[in-house]
């Protein structure tokens, strides 16, 4: 009996020590103790943050998987509310924050908080920024894994310098490779070398300096697929390119006939008018309406078309029905030429309205979960306000009485003087 107990205890202890070796708890001393060549993947959390707690098992899995792969990446976590020095150093602004630290540079993860996506980010950022593809097999393998990839083809050159610099900047977002000409399939036509080729949407595009401008800006603009499913993370990332995002909002399940038609229409316009619009718009469909509802401060009708300007939280809605390609083109052109008014935005009035809207939503969701708590949340400030009102009135009333008394005394003295 005792033996089994102690063996259980032993295995618990063993597990605990294993857990701690997968994920290290970091404090303010980290900046002194870390080695210059170390690579760290760090999660900053706050004890009260529920999203951070949800991430705990994922974080443990990531730690254990990287260990078993023999990865050079160390996995850590840090309570940002306790280790404020470290959090300040990493410029942690929200929780949880996932940041890779490599050769004194910090790479902030902004994607979905799933194991697969975080692992993908970890492999991409911890390795060489430009990975070389030495064989057709490797090229095909990369093609099968990535929807969007940029490949430098040719010998060392000034362009390669720019390509590497762009990779260093944008590695958080996309994939960079280099390959010799004979590694790429013959069907890929390259008129001259060196070249930068973008593979996406089942086809490829070759960079041209005259047409496309600076390489880094071109990569930043082109790193999204032609028409894709957008979640709130992708939406923010698209906003960072400075483009407007042209969206079709759809129901999550059981799309009606009209939704299917809208989606097809938007996809067709994105593809057929690529040349015309790809500089100004990213295209996609969204199945979660929360973000757009928040932006518009009302429930959006599904399905619908909307263009979002993420630089100023503004949005554009079509002025009439959009059922044909012509009508959708008119809508997009109207946004570009300014004939359709931008709504929303981040002006003071909008921000106050948004605050009220958000508070209302919060109260509603609280009411759904716990009506009693909601009642107290509402009743408590109300009770305090009433109490203060009461105090004020009472104080007012008593001072009024005092004044009255004084006045009557004065009048008394006046009358007494008069009588004199
Ligand atoms: C858009 O991309 C998808 C794959 O991502 C591809 O199947 C489709 O053919 C593309 N459409 C056009 C017109 O480029
Ligand atoms: C390459 O980088 C240099 C220095 O940043 C820049 O001046 C030049 O325009 C870039 N060239 C291309 C093709 O992007
Ligand atoms: C989007 O917002 C930015 C920042 O306020 C602004 O400069 C730009 O003109 C807006 N775009 C459109 C099409 O309204
Ligand atoms: C559309 O893109 C072109 C090229 O980048 C730019 O000059 C123009 O200002 C953009 N239009 C709007 C309304 O943003």
Write the SSE topology.
Blueprint: H1 2-22, E1 24-25, H2 30-33, E2 39-45, H3 50-68, E3 73-79, H4 84-89, E4 97-102, E5 105-109, H5 115-126, E6 131-133, H6 136-145, E7 149-153, H7 158-170, E8 175-179, E9 195-200, E10 203-206, H8 209-212, H9 215-222, E11 228-229, H10 232-240, E12 244-249, H11 257-272, H12 274-277, E13 281-286, H13 290-296, E14 304-309, E15 314-316, H14 325-337, E16 343-344, H15 348-369, H16 371-419
Parallel strand pairs: 1-3, 2-3, 6-8, 7-8, 11-13, 12-13
Antiparallel strand pairs: 2-4, 4-5, 7-9, 9-10, 12-14, 14-15, 15-16
Helix pairs in contact: 7-9, 15-16
Bound molecules: 2-acetamido-2-deoxy-beta-D-glucopyranose (4 copies).
């Amino acid at each position: 009996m005792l033996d089994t107990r102690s063996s259980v205890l032993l295995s618990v202890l063993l597990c605990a020590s294993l857990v701690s070796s997968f994920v290290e708890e970091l404090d303010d001393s980290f900046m002194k103790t870390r080695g210059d060549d170390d690579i760290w993947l760090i999660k900053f959390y706050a004890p009260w943050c529920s999203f951070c707690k949800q991430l705990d098992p994922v974080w443990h899995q990531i730690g254990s998987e990287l260990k078993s792969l023999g990865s050079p990446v160390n996995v850590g976590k840090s309570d940002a509310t306790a280790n404020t020095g470290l959090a300040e150093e990493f410029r942690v602004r929200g929780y949880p924050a996932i940041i890779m630290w490599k050769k004194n540079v910090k790479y902030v993860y902004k994607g979905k908080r799933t194991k697969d996506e975080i692992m993908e980010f970890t492999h991409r950022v911890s390795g060489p920024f430009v990975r070389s593809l030495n064989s057709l097999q490797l090229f095909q393998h990369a093609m099968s894994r990535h929807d969007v990839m940029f490949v430098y083809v040719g010998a060392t050159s000034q362009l390669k310098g720019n390509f590497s610099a762009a990779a260093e900047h944008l590695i958080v977002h996309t994939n960079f490779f280099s390959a010799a000409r004979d590694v790429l399939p013959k069907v890929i036509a390259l008129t001259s070398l060196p070249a930068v080729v973008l593979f996406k949407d089942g086809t490829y595009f070759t960079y041209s300096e005259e047409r496309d401008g600076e390489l880094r800006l071109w990569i930043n603009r082109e790193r999204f697929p032609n028409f894709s499913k957008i979640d709130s993370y992708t939406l923010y990332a698209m906003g960072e390119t400075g483009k407007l995002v042209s969206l079709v909002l759809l129901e999550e399940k059981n799309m009606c006939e009209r939704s299917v038609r809208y989606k097809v229409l938007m996809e067709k316009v994105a593809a057929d008018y690529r040349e015309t619009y790809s500089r100004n718009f990213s295209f996609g469909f969204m199945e979660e309406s929360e973000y757009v509802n928040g932006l518009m401060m009302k429930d959006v009708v599904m399905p619908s078309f909307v263009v979002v300007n993420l630089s100023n939280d503004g949005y554009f809605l079509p002025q009439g029905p959009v059922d044909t390609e012509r009508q959708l083109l008119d809508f997009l052109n109207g946004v570009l030429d300014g004939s359709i008014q931008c709504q929303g935005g981040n002006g003071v009035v909008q921000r106050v309205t948004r605050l009220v809207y958000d508070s209302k939503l919060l109260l509603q969701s609280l009411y759904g979960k716990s009506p009693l708590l909601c009642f107290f949340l509402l009743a408590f400030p109300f009770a305090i306000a009433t109490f203060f009102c009461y105090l004020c009135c009472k104080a007012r009333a008593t001072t009024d009485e005092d004044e009255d008394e004084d006045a009557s005394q004065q009048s008394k003295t006046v009358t007494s003087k008069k009588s004199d």
